[in-house]
């Protein structure tokens, strides 16, 4: 599937960063959110400090009221301060180290700009500071790296934590059902039109991986650090280029299973 960003719903425009890689898929999705009757916008995850990308965001955003971050990973946050300073606005994030200005961002906050409302939901797990943003006007949720448009995400141990991640997926599932959220606007990859179906898939995938890790541990010789050996069994069908990222998730799975015992 070719993904190049574009306009979605009445409020969303995705500006795709030119930083495609095996980890970032087609690149980082920078989201520009604006009520159609307003000249002021919210920019989510300005991405990498690539001049052509920041100029493309400008072309879509116009008058930027604030910059929001879904989480601290550099492919989402690295250009945030530079971009906000360009527009004389702040950067709001859960992690104080990534803020510009005095306003943070956390569970239950509502960011209002013009007629637009963005509701903040804490969804830790991929990272400790991961947030999702609900746009009720379009029945959409921006998930950063918590739910991707293609494939599955890494639980980035030790900052990421599998128990928290599973709880976040369950919370997003409940929110989608209760609030009629139908669409996922992810941090990488294409828009997902079936939010509940995508989250169901993610939850089932995680349970399957946990079962595979349990089975691998039962057959491998005892080890103080079995993560790489588990990767070689469970992710044998995955490109070895991705084994480093897979090992982060396996370490999160092993920590989760240790807490189960």
TrEMBL record:
Provide the Metallo-beta-lactamase domain boundaries.
Answer: 27-188
Pfam families assigned to the protein according to its UniProt record, in alphabetical order: Lactamase_B, WHD_BLACT
What is the top-level taxon of the source organism? Bacteria
InterPro entries to which the protein is assigned, alphabetical: LACTB2_WH, Metallo-B-lactamas, RibonucZ/Hydroxyglut_hydro, Sec-metab_biosynth-thioest, WH-like_DNA-bd_sf
What is the protein name stated in its UniProt record?
A: MBL fold metallo-hydrolase
State the organism named in the record: Nocardioides potassii
């Amino acid at each position: 599937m070719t993904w190049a960003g574009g306009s979605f719903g009445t409020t969303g425009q995705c500006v795709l960063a030119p930083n495609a890689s095996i980890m970032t898929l087609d690149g980082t999705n920078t989201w520009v959110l604006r009520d159609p009757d307003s000249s002021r916008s919210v920019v989510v995850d300005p991405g990498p400090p690539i001049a052509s990308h920041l100029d493309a965001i400008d072309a879509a955003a116009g008058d930027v009221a604030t910059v929001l971050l879904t989480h601290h990973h550099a492919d989402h946050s690295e250009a945030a301060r530079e971009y906000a300073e360009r527009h004389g606005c702040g950067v709001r994030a859960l992690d104080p180290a990534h803020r510009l200005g005095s306003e943070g961002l956390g569970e239950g906050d509502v960011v209002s700009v013009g007629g637009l409302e963005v509701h903040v939901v804490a969804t830790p797990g991929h990272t400790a500071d991961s947030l999702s943003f609900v746009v009720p006007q379009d029945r959409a949720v921006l998930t950063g790296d918590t739910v991707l448009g293609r494939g599955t995400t890494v639980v980035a141990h030790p900052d990421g934590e599998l128990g928290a991640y599973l709880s976040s997926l369950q919370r997003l599932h409940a929110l989608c059902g209760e609030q009629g959220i139908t669409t996922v606007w992810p941090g990488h990859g294409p828009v997902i039109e079936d939010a509940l179906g995508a989250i169901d898939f993610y939850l089932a995938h995680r349970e399957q991986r946990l079962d595979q890790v349990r089975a691998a541990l039962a057959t491998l010789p005892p080890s103080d650090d079995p993560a790489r050996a588990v990767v070689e069994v469970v992710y044998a069908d995955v490109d070895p280029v991705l084994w480093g990222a897979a090992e982060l998730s396996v370490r999160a799975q092993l920590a989760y299973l240790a807490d189960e015992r």
